[in-house]
Amino acid sequence: MAIDEIASLVKFCSAETGLKILNSQSLRWSAPHLFNDPFELSHLSRPDFTPEKLLAGMIKEAINMLFAPSDPTGKNNRLVAAVARWREEERFASEEEAEQVLNQLLSQIANQQQESIDKYLAEWQRYARTLRICCFSDKPANIYSWRSYADNHAGIALRFSAGDDTSLTQPRKVTYSTTPP
């Protein structure tokens, strides 16, 4: 057996759920929104901003670049290039004057961004409604799992063999990363 190979997987659950699993000889695969992870996206997730909030933030950032003591920086960014040009031309006398122009210029961008986000979320929602996951551990002595999933240490842990002669032929560990797959 290779070092990375997983010999068995453990399902933590309450005694009642364990009896259901044993009697039915089947496992429930849950939708992600049923998990207890507050950081997980669900099919009901919504952004915590509106196009108006996005626009206000964009205008604030552009005004900060316009009236900052140092020149704006940014590679291949049309807004930064426009701000640099406006600074050179001394286009705006006040923040209020700049805000009016920026509001007109950036409102379309904010709305386009919102449309992109809405499209992404709609695709995610379609996907999340069809996705099912069954969670296991590779260690039966996982204290967190006993507490969280095995009825605060009053439940059971069911061990399932993994490998070539089983239905779990090649289980893989979850790899957490800041870069999405």
Structure notes:
- This protein has five helices and two strands; from the N terminus they run E-H-H-H-H-H-E.
- The protein has a two-stranded antiparallel sheet.
- The longest helix has 36 residues, at 95-130.
- It folds into two domains: 1-28 and 134-181, no CATH class; 51-130, no CATH class.
- The protein is elongated.
- Helix content is 45%, strand content 7%.
- It is mainly alpha-helical and 181 residues long.
- It has helices at 15-24, 51-67, 78-89, 95-130, 143-149, and strands at residues 8-13, 156-161.
- The model has no long low-confidence stretch (mean pLDDT 86).
What characteristics describe this protein?
elongated, 7% strand, mainly alpha, single chain, 2 domains, 5 helices
Query: What's the count of strands?
Result: 2
The SS-based structural class is: mainly alpha
Distance between the first and last residues' Cα: 28 Å
User: What ranges have pLDDT less than 50 throughout 5 or more consecutive residues?
Assistant: none
Radius of gyration: 26 Å
Shape: elongated
Q: What number of domains?
A: 2
Note the beta-strand portion: 5-15%
Rounded mean pLDDT score: 86
Number of helices: 5
Largest sheet: 2 strands, antiparallel
Order of helices and strands: EHHHHHE
Q: Helix content range of the residues, please?
A: 40-55%
Q: Trace the largest sheet across and list its strands.
A: 1-2
